[in-house]
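Revision sheet: structure tokens.
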Amino acid sequence: MKTLFRVLGAAAAVAVTGAAIVVLDKVLNDKDPLHVEAVEFPEEAEKDAAEAEKTAEAFCQSPLQAQWPERIYRTGDLAKYLPDGNLLFVGRADSQIKHMGHRIELGEIEVAANALPEVQYACCLHDAAHERIVLFCQAQEDDPKRLLRRLRERLPEYMLPNRVVFLETMPANRTGKIDRALLRAQYIKE
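Predicted:
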């Protein structure tokens, strides 16, 4: 039985026992992979799915197993293998937005923020109603101007967050991922 390390930010991970990692591209091909697909116990994971349609989207037959049924859970995480065989988490497949006329991957902003030594965890959300990018940080210091100055060294101007919210603890859902739905409900009024 393998252990999947579900990544929280750039440097922390939570072990999920009974899971393995298969890295596939958008069409579920293991050549030139980018998307992470976690093979999990469907009985457990499907209990969490509230709607049959969402379940059908998230679970599919493994393209690597044609001999018998083996369903995989499509996480939507983006990752790539490093030369040493480790897996680098680079963001989410569903986090692209259009802001100020530019297509932006919110995951790129998160990676830049997580690379700062004072930041433990970072999460970016798009507040479409107010046309702004909101960065949530669990950090050792809570100076938004300093943080934005540091991010300006790593990101183009149009990718800089318009609002920074510092949190004492980044909320996590039961699978160990940052609870984006909770952050959106608490901080973004649509």
